[in-house]
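Methyltransferase, FkbM family
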Amino acid sequence: MMSFARKLRLCTKVALGKELLIKYDVICKKERFGSDYGGWDIVTANLNSNSVVYSFGVGEDASFDTALIEKYNLTVHAFDPTPKSIDWVKRQDFSDKFAMYNYGIAAFDGNVSFNPPENPEHVSHTILDRPSTSTEAITVPVKKLSTIMQELGHSHIDILKMDIEGAEYNVIKDICKSDIRPVQLLVEFHHRFEGVGIKETKKSINIIRSMGYQLFSVSATNEEYCFIQSTC
């Protein structure tokens, strides 16, 4: 539960136009999976061992993925092209149900420059401009969601989670143009990034809603948004 101090700070930022406050579209019975840092709320109805889960952005916290695997014995298809994340996954003793792919998602198929974080102890890279670290950028492979599904032989997705450091805005536009409609769509928005802003997040939320999704959960940080395709 959000503290009073946290609510006050959030309301102040909203009033100053530095943060957004979006109302839920629907109240769902939900359950949180994963750590305080890497966890997400989901609607568990109809999930089983055959459910298809795509998890974009592993970093160094796969607690959401492993919690789903433990409860449902399903396969999580996890994606992250970040070298530090790839090395971290290799050092873990994950179940065979955790399927790791060393590429990312984008609105196109190809390669992209990946700018490292300003703090070298952090793991998350971004395809957005980051002048302070651009000289250390790496090139990584990315694919469209439709390409990934075709290659993996999936005709549907039950849960699509994206924590992709600013790439979500164009990916959402690409998904909207396609006929792909995951049952649940979990997105971390990065309006805090320089050059992005809350207007872009509002636009993306409107696009998601236009595809028939309803917002059922927002994290305490006001960055992770959870949508579902049908009323729960």
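thats it. The chain has a mean pLDDT of 91. The first helix runs from residue 4 to 15. bye
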